Amino acid sequence: MSARKLHLAVAQMGPVQRSDSRQRVVARLLEMLREAHSRGATWVTFPELALTTFFPRWSMEDPAEVHAFFETEMPGPLTQPLFDAARALGVGFYLGYAELAGGVQYNTSILVGRDGGIVGKYRKIHIPGEAATREGQAVQHLEKKYFEVGDLGFPVWQTPDAAIGMCICNDRRWPETYRVMGLQRVEVVMVGYNTPSGYTQWDEPLHLRMHHHLLSLQAGAYQNACWVAAAGKAGVEEGNPMIGGSCIVAPTGEVMVRTFSEDDEVINFVCDLSASENYRANIFNFAAHRRPEHYGMIVSRKGAQAPDGGA
Ligand code: ING
């Protein structure tokens, strides 16, 4: 099988503090976009909520205070330079941001093509955390308060280079996310994330954060025969540490390249897309081997029930 090469980059970000302006953040993103291009990459993945600090850690009631973290247009005047650079360099990108759309708040990412035009949009579906402030808890995780469930599903876009899909943070832990894209012959899944490593809200040792992150990406890539390019916002944001571990995973399930730091850092890898075709023609030939007639419960049942029908 002949090789089909796609040169991917992942642009991990160090922390974004509350006082950092959009201009300053966009300048960091631009620098990494240029770095990726200088290495020959043609697509770059940026993190979830890349333009701001991870604000769901705070309880806020004033809508104006909350909306300051949201974008009402994309591109807007402050993000336009990213689109201009994409066109000038011929480099496409994934960008996560908080979206205010007709009064509704979403945790969103867009895919921007190598011509600087928007290819597609997706909104995070599995929203983690709480809808209401937990009293007495120093750090909140209020994504359910600030974001509605995404209403766009898990689309895949056929770009001139590859079939590309998107995933945001917690969505990467759910096999359904990758499977819906796998069924659309996705070749590259781009993922942005912000995963705290400084506290637990249930009984789980902190070292497992990195293990579960990598486990989820590697399983999703292998079981759906796709490449996964994952970019985190890492380091200590407003006193709150977050994992790094941004990486590019092959359809073999292997991590091919991974960040070294918890700061702004570009990694890149020349991906052979024919690896997807190889798995899809053999062990994971869905048309030949899947048995959807036995999977009905996956869509008919939401919560787990004991075999005797109990709760
Ligand atoms: N962050 C987290 C994630 O899935 C989370 C959510 C909450 C992780 C609690 C760990 C513990 O990585 C986002 N942004 O979805």
UniProtKB/TrEMBL annotation:
Cross-referenced InterPro entries: Aliph_Amidase/BUP, C-N_Hydrolase, C-N_Hydrolase_sf
Ranges where the CN hydrolase domain occurs: 6-275
Pfam families the record matches: CN_hydrolase
PROSITE patterns per record: CN_HYDROLASE
EC number: 3.5.-.-, 3.5.1.77
Listed GO MF terms: N-carbamoyl-D-amino acid hydrolase activity
Keyword terms of this UniProt record: Hydrolase
Signal peptide: none
PANTHER family for this protein: NITRILASE C965.09-RELATED (PTHR43674:SF12)
Protein name: Carbon-nitrogen hydrolase
